[in-house]
Specification:
The chain is an all-beta fold. It has a domain of 197 residues: Methylamine Dehydrogenase, Chain H (7 Propeller). The protein contains 1 helix and 32 strands. The strands form 8 sheets. Strands 1-32-31-30 form a 4-stranded antiparallel beta sheet, with no helix packed on it. Strand 19 and strand 20 form a beta hairpin. The longest helix is centred in the N-terminal third of the chain and has 7 residues. The N terminus is likely disordered. It comes from Suillus luteus UH-Slu-Lm8-n1.
């Protein structure tokens, strides 16, 4: 696990500036919450039947996890181990084994829906965020058995957590809140490192830039802000007052691998390309039906093509593949209902995209051609979240049917 100083050394920029400096304390506020571990809960077997079966639904999943008693809002796979963490409407999270559905840890302590849950980049910690405003942290115990976890701390601050993001290189956690604030904490201490204010509505999405040096956030109020984590004042702000940037409510965001471009989508169905170095709009993308919200954005690495490619998914059931070099549409991928999530595979299969939908299916596509590679079925309700695991060999999904399903992404050449 990296210390704040090690992270600082990793992300120092060309001018000697750093993202985190252990001596550069922003507004460090010690957490005064209860740090005691939760009592051990008896492990429950998550393997079970799905809700009443629709005879028309073919279930081609490898594994079921049906311990949640309400909709599953969040799912995240461990970076290396066969584990997933899920969070749901039942105010609970679970760490579970994706190979057999066994519960590893029951994550308790929330008093409202768990809407975000994810592993840290090194896989040593798990964070859950809830509509109750709580952010709770668990950590792995020991270095041999990935099944041993303990409760670490509860972080204070947000009103209602909308999303959580771990820093790409260490144990720094970012959260967007319903009260228009964005929070930054250092773990394992739980100290508040920065509080970002400036939005005037719920902060619907946010990301660290892949180089770890900056933060981008966007709000229901239609504003986008670009932050240096050391400062409570944004480096730049785009708002609906700029006619080129009017997206109505912003709902989705992605940043390219070189940390130079952000692509944002809104409830108007519009998409904007923003230069992070210039702080201005450099492109506008159509493709989605007017008034149909853009719910997901993902960059795709098409190695060797020389093209910068992004995929946008909307409530119109379309996933549009765009070439940002030409600002032209390469392909349109379709579902029968809203696209709720987009995932891109790691190399060497980085040309593959997985789309999740409210039509109860996930689909794997080839971004180079727009061809449907595989359909993943078995859910009996809208799919609300999805995550790739085991180096992209499986996709794990959580649905409105209270179930989590595990699917292989490997293609059977005989199909």
């Amino acid at each position: 696990m990296k210390t704040a100083q090690e992270i600082a050394e990793d992300v120092s920029d060309e001018e000697g500036d750093v993202f985190i400096d252990s001596e550069d304390v922003f507004a460090e506020v010690p957490d005064d919450g209860d740090h005691l571990m939760d009592e051990d809960d008896e492990a429950e077997d998550g393997v079970g039947d799905l809700p009443p079966e629709d005879s028309d639904v073919k279930d081609n999943s490898l594994q079921h996890f049906t311990t949640h008693s309400g909709s599953v809002f969040a799912i995240s796979c461990h970076p290396t181990e066969p584990l997933a963490v899920s969070g749901g409407e039942d105010d609970l999270g679970y760490i579970w084994d994706i190979t057999d559905g066994e519960v590893i840890v029951k994550l308790t302590g929330h008093v409202d829906s768990v809407c975000s849950a994810s592993f840290s980049s090194d896989g040593q910690m798990v964070a859950t965020g809830g509509m109750d405003g709580k952010v709770r942290i668990w950590r792995r115990v020991g270095t041999v058995d990935f099944r041993n976890w303990e409760f670490l701390t509860e972080l204070q601050g947000p009103d209602e957590v909308i999303w959580l993001r771990w820093h790409p290189r260490g144990t720094i956690l970012l959260a967007g809140s319903n009260d228009s604030m964005v929070w930054l904490w250092q773990l394992p201490s739980g100290n508040t490192m920065q509080v970002f204010a400036g939005h005037s509505g719920p902060v619907q999405c946010g990301e660290f830039t892949p180089d770890g040096k900056r933060i981008v956030t966007a709000s229901e109020d239609g504003t986008l802000m670009y932050w240096d984590p050391r400062s409570p004042t944004p480096l730049f702000k785009l708002s609906p007052q700029d006619a080129r940037f009017d997206l109505e409510n912003i709902t989705s965001l992605a940043i390219n691998a070189s940390s130079t471009l952000a692509v944002v989508g809104g409830t108007s169905g519009s998409v904007r390309v923003v230069s992070l170095s210039k702080g201005e709009v450099v492109g506008a993308l159509g493709g989605h039906a007017e008034g149909d919200s853009v719910e997901a954005v993902q960059f795709v690495d098409l190695a060797g093509t020389g093209s910068s490619v992004v995929v946008t998914g909307g409530t119109d059931g379309k996933a549009c593949v765009w070439d940002l070099t030409t600002m032209r549409l390469r392909a349109t991928l379709t579902h029968r209902d809203a696209v709720t999530s987009l995932l891109t595979h790691p190399a060497p299969k980085s040309h593959l995209i997985v789309s999740a939908s409210a039509d109860n299916t996930l689909r794997t596509w080839d971004a180079r051609t727009g061809a449907l590679v595989k359909e993943h079925t078995g859910h009996r309700g809208p799919i609300l979240s999805a995550s790739l695991g085991l180096q992209g060999s499986v996709v794990v999904s959580g649905g409105d049917d209270s179930a989590c399903l595990v699917f292989t992404t490997e293609v059977d050449e005989s199909e």
